[in-house]
Amino acid sequence: MALGEMFFSVLEVAGTISFAISGAMAALEKRVDLFGVIFLGATTALAGGIIRDVLVGKTPPSAFSNYRYMAIAAATAVVVFLIAWLSREHYEHNVEMVNTVNNVFDAAGLGAFTITGAKVAMGMGYMDNGFFVVFLAMVTGIGGGVLRDLMIGEIPFVLRKRIYAVASILGGIVYYQLVCRQVNDMTAAFVGIGIVFGLRMLATIFKWNLPRAFE
């Protein structure tokens, strides 16, 4: 396997683990059982990629043709469940710290999947359609989180708080433009991920939100 392919493979695994942790932690907040934690962890990790693959006509989606990612997401969710179960008292009395950890993993997953989404779109022959590449990057990044929030009865995070989809869009645009300008793929990926992750962290620290008609 070439270095570039290995890098993006590792990036997909990192994104899967990050989003599975985020989804499992969100599930634990809603007091669901073990199956619920696994299901929501896997949904958060895989749904964005499934939606992306369907949009580009790749069937069955990678999540169902390569069971590695499903196994990684499920195993990660189980580990999160066991950690919470074995240290339940400590876990429940440190909600603020848990939310901070969740936010960091969610931002990491968003960055990783934004870039892999753009990479897949360009690899499928859409290099000349920048709008579609960035759209698929965003869908890959936010799709799992949107579905997770809907399933736990929340207005999707992406629609209400802390610059989220915007960070994914900007990261996707920068990555796409750098690749178009013949910048090394891995360098472009690091820059794109850094923009997504950095914006999400800054938005959290400084409580940046897009304008709303009503407060």
What does this structure look like?
By secondary structure, the protein is mostly helical. The protein is 79% helix and 0% strand. It has helices at 3-29, 34-55, 62-65, 67-86, 88-92, 95-126, 130-151, 165-180, 185-206. The longest helix is centred in the middle third of the chain and has 32 residues, at 95-126. It is globular, with a radius of gyration of 17 Å. The model has no long low-confidence stretch (mean pLDDT 92).
What are the main properties of this structure?
215 residues; mainly alpha; 9 helices; globular
Outline of the structure:
The protein has 215 residues and is mostly helical. It has helices at 3-29, 34-55, 62-65, 67-86, 88-92, 95-126, 130-151, 165-180, 185-206.
How many strands in all?
A: 0
Helical stretch count?
A: 9
What percent of the residues sit in helical stretches (DSSP H or I)?
over 70%
Shape: globular
Averaged pLDDT, please? 92
Write the layout of secondary structure elements.
Blueprint: H1 3-29, H2 34-55, H3 62-65, H4 67-86, H5 88-92, H6 95-126, H7 130-151, H8 165-180, H9 185-206
